[in-house]
Specification:
alpha+beta, 8-stranded mixed sheet, 5-stranded antiparallel sheet, 29 helices, about 45% helix
Length: about 950
């Protein structure tokens, strides 16, 4: 593609193509990475930012040697050398929230051979759009960051509270599931799905298409929206509509799946389709009965209508004959010669013993229903032949004349469970009509009775039409409404009389009319028998109504169009939910970006802070370079703190959980809080007796309480009172029913109450949004309360607010009570003061700079090192090493083979191996559940050299 030619064909060419695409992707990712860093650098002015963005563009393009770029916004403009307008241009205009127009543009200064996409690759088109969006976002943050951040959090909330089930998997193993996925499957804790096989969740009938979707996604091909079935925990089956896309999350290829519960919709659609089929058959056969006088032709046409108009796979009519009780097939449709041979064999006896359902209809004069051929024991004599022809259900309805059963009308379908009460009722009536028609044909003199019966039939049809649960209408070929039912009038707001004075064009949204008329013309010209489309009607009150329209055409005996039959289903609510999901999907990208930045940033900070610390030990304190290094280290520490806040409010912070006594934690924190809030605020603590323990990260809980204290202090500029209370409470089912995020049980309640200015309802609704603040510019980051919310949610609890303007504020934090009793301080391990050693350590870290720093620190302390850049290399080195490996020091997230799996494999080889995990942020199951020091040894990035050395010594000296 780079040279305008094809790179497909031979294996070698395919490899070159892959290598070339990888190179292009690396350039694009480098530009995105640099742009992301620039966009986060608030020290840059808008002009410097635009200049820097312009410099990023040419190297990222397919032909950088002839590429030039221009970036502009409002009065600011930057161009790279040689820029000029050419015919080979790719531009991404944008507009800020303050209506300032901007542009990111790349041009080729001379023509190059075009690939399939033109002079620019499709990836380059997406890249320039992404860069334009990053620039727009960064500029808006400089003008009005508060507005953007509030908007972003609203979208984030849509993701968090998405009503659709969302999960990810790797090679068919679930790696993440949201609460809606748990609710869909009847599982309270969606984390229980992690590690399960997707095929255990998907109904067996859909395993093949699901595997095909995986193959398509892994091959880089888009996967269409599919309808599947999930199996709930209680064994029930739910219908879902599934969208799946491939993702690369921190180097690991995953598949994101969004599943919408369409059980009720599918049930309603199936029911409507089935009813429509039966309505069509009954309507067609009743018209046939009226016009066709020959009984044999009438029976044959009735079977044909059942198959062609009703979608039945086969239909046949059998009649008793003579006075001997013989039974024979008199009419059929959809059956080939072998099928008829099997059928005639089954019904040869008197009564037909081979088919229990037909025998039932003939002998008892009532319908015989088989809704599952595969499982109904009475279908055994003909099951194999039926399933081979894809007959999944059948029904036999008695035909009666003069009060006695004279035959049966039999229907076969390909869907299990087709014949429910509505279909059976209608088909019973249909059989009654056919039987009566046969009676009328046999008694030519009783025409009056036949006419009366037909009027009753029409009346029943009219009643079914009027009271149908969906909108129904008969429409003239010119669009005039001929007949409308009540449901349609309710959908569009017009009365029946008003509708009949209009045509469908009048109430159709102008943007949808052309497509609708095109379908109508195709039907009138005989190019299609029916059509279905989503469109919008204009309600009488002026608003739009989204509907699913299904239309078929009825022709007269002369073949000319008579009228259209329309079914209209109101899908406005479903469309609104789809819009909400699209917004939620946009915010998913924001969350993924935050996680990725945090992971890479913590690796960088480990290197920056580590080398700064090492250099400080080599520079005298009086040296000016010592102060420079101290400034570097302090800046790194502040950056690490900011990263922790970002991870905390997004609930992706590594959680080192332990059993915590909140009374002890509050008591220890009391002195610090006193200094924090100042002398003009009175601090009071009231600690509940016999308080239960909780499982949480004490440092995170302390951070949350300090953030609440700071927020309270700022709400009391002239002083006031701040109290912290603890208590044990029980939350019952009634409480949980009105709060979807609460599970009934025992909780520890922490109440932080102030006498400050209080909050309005609007502020309360937004208080936990990241970057939302009521303080002036430069007086708050807007992260404090978002961190509180993230910590509480990550700890399994929930938080409530009681506040009103002028009446102070109370934050109530509910944390699940733990049954564990050990709330004391962890015993201090006996660690050598110099934290040195001579053991052999296998260091596995995919970030080269972090690996080199860590190796340098450990080598200086006497350890023997084995170094690896990934899990597979680490496994190989350990297998080839002759001696004992005393400690595995590994990053958690690595491509191909992650740290957790590497540790499990090495422990099988060497059971006594100690393991210390390193990470800054990960979705790995080890850390997502919360680190428990009794089970897993973990050191969070960024770490200092001394902290690393002490932790390694602690792990090596720990028994077990």
């Amino acid at each position: 593609m780079a040279d305008g030619g094809s790179k497909h064909g031979s294996g070698q060419a395919g490899g070159q193509d892959a290598a070339w695409r990888l190179g292009e992707r690396v350039k694009e990712l480098a530009a995105l990475h640099a742009a992301a860093r620039l966009s986060q650098n608030d020290d840059l002015s808008a002009g410097d930012l635009i200049q820097a963005f312009a410099g990023l563009l040419p190297p990222a393009w397919q032909f950088p040697e002839i590429a030039a770029a221009r970036v502009a916004c409002a009065e600011l403009r930057a161009e790279t050398a040689g820029f000029q307008e050419t015919p080979w241009s790719l531009a991404a205009p944008f507009k800020t929230a303050y209506n300032e127009s901007g542009l990111v543009q790349v041009v080729y200064l001379e023509e190059r051979p075009q690939a399939d996409e033109g002079p620019f690759l499709a990836e380059e088109r997406r890249l320039i759009d992404t860069l334009a969006e990053l620039l727009r976002s960064s500029l808006e943050r400089r003008f009005a960051g508060k507005v953007l951040r509030a908007s972003e959090e609203r979208f984030r909330a849509l993701v968090t509270h998405s009503p659709d089930a969302i999960y990810t998997h790797v090679d068919g193993t679930v790696t993440m599931a949201n609460p809606a996925m748990g609710r869909l499957l009847g599982i309270q804790d969606p984390s229980r799905l992690v590690g399960r096989q997707v095929l255990d969740i998907v109904h067996a009938d859909y395993h093949a298409p699901v595997r095909e979707r995986w193959a398509s996604l892994q091959a880089g091909q888009p996967a269409p929206t599919l309808e599947e079935q999930f199996v709930r925990q209680d064994g029930a089956v739910v219908d879902v509509e599934v969208n799946a896309v491939p993702l690369v999350i921190q180097g690991r290829r995953e598949i994101l799946v969004i599943a919408r519960d369409i059980t009720f919709r599918k049930r309603a659609e199936r029911h409507i389709r089935q009813l429509n089929r039966v309505y069509a058959v009954r309507s067609g056969i009743n018209q046939l009965i009226v016009r066709e006088k020959d009984p044999e032709r009438m029976l044959s046409e009735a079977c044909r209508i059942a198959v062609e108009d009703g979608g039945f796979r086969m239909a046949w009519i059998g009649l008793l004959y003579g006075g001997t009780g013989g039974f024979e097939v008199r009419a059929h449709a959809g059956a080939d010669a072998p099928t008829l041979a099997v059928l005639r064999t089954l019904i040869a006896s008197d009564p037909p013993a081979g088919c229990a359902f037909t025998r039932h209809a003939l002998t008892l004069g009532e319908h015989g229903i088989c809704n599952d051929v595969a499982r109904d024991a009475k279908a055994a004599p003909w099951r194999g032949a039926a399933l081979a022809r894809d007959y999944r259900a059948m029904a036999s309805f008695p035909l009666k004349a003069d009060g006695r059963t004279i035959g049966t009308f039999n229907f076969y379908v390909g869907e299990r469970g087709f014949f429910d009460s509505d279909e059976v009722h209608l088909l019973d009536k249909l059989a009654t009509d056919v039987g009566f028609a046969l009676e009328v044909a046999a008694h030519e003199g009783e025409r009056k009775r036949a006419a009366t019966t037909l009027l009753e039939i029409e009346s029943r049809l009219r009643g079914a039409f009027d009271f149908a649960p969906i909108g129904m209408a008969l429409v003239a070929p010119d669009g005039k409404w001929l007949q409308v039912n009540r449901a349609l009038c309710e959908i569009v707001g017009y009365s029946e009389a008003e509708m009949l004075a209009l045509d469908f064009q009048t109430i159709t949204h102008p943007d949808d009319l052309e497509a609708d008329l095109a379908f109508v013309n195709e039907m009138l010209e005989g190019h299609r028998a029916h059509y279905q489309m989503e469109k919008r009607y204009l309600h009488k009150l002026g608003h739009e109504v989204c509907v699913l329209l299904s239309v078929s055409l009825v022709r007269g005996q002369d073949g000319r169009p008579s009228y259209f039959v329309s079914q209209i289903q109101n899908i406005s609510e479903r469309k609104q939910l789809e819009d909400q999901l699209r917004q939620a999907q946009k915010m998913e990208a924001v969350g993924q970006l935050a996680g990725g930045v945090a992971h890479d940033f913590n690796n960088l900070l480990t290197v920056i802070n580590g080398y700064a610390t090492l250099l400080q030990t080599r520079v005298p304190r009086g040296d000016a370079r010592f102060d420079m290094l101290r400034q570097i280290k302090e800046a790194g520490d502040r950056a690490a703190s900011l990263t922790r806040q970002l991870l905390a409010f997004s609930r992706k912070q590594v959680m080192q959980a332990q059993t915590v006594d909140l009374n002890r934690l509050v008591a220890n924190l009391e002195r610090m809080l006193g200094r924090l809030i100042g002398e003009d605020v009175i601090l009071e603590t009231r600690l509940g007796a016999s308080l239960g323990a909780v499982r949480a990260d004490p440092s995170q809980i302390e951070q949350a309480l300090m953030n609440l204290a700071v927020n309270a202090r700022d709400a009391m500029p002239r002083g006031g009172a701040l109290s912290i209370e603890t208590d044990s409470v029980a939350l019952d089912e009634a409480y949980a029913r009105v709060r979807s995020d609460v599970t009934p049980g025992r909780y520890v309640l922490v109440t932080v109450r102030d006498t400050g200015s209080g909050m309005t309802d609007e502020v309360k609704q937004r208080i936990f949004e990241p970057f939302f603040t009521t303080k002036g510019v430069g007086k708050g980051t807007g992260l404090g309360m978002a961190v509180v919310h993230g910590v509480v949610k990550q700890s399994g609890g929930h938080i409530e607010i009681e506040s009103a303007p002028g009446r102070g504020t109370a934050f109530k934090i509910y944390l699940p009570q733990s049954d564990e009793k050990d709330c004391g301080e962890k015993p201090v391990s006996t660690v050598h003061s110099a934290a040195t050693g001579s053991e052999t350590i296998l260091l596995v870290e995919d970030d080269l700079a972090v690996r080199e720093l860590t190796a340098s620190v450990l080598a200086d302390r006497g350890y023997r090192l084995l170094l690896a850049g990934n899990g597979e290399e680490g496994l190989r080195i350990a297998q080839e090493h002759d001696g004992t490996v005393h400690l595995l020091l590994t990053d958690v997230v690595m491509p191909v083979l992650d740290g957790r799996e590497l540790a499990e494999r090495l422990k099988r080889m060497q059971p006594g191996l100690k393991v210390l995990y390193l990470s800054g942020y990960t979705d790995d199951a080890i850390v997502r559940r919360g680190i428990d020091s009794r089970e897993v040894q973990f050191l969070q990035k960024p770490y200092s050299p001394s902290a690393l050395a002490l932790k390694i010594r602690e792990v090596l000296d720990t028994n077990g």
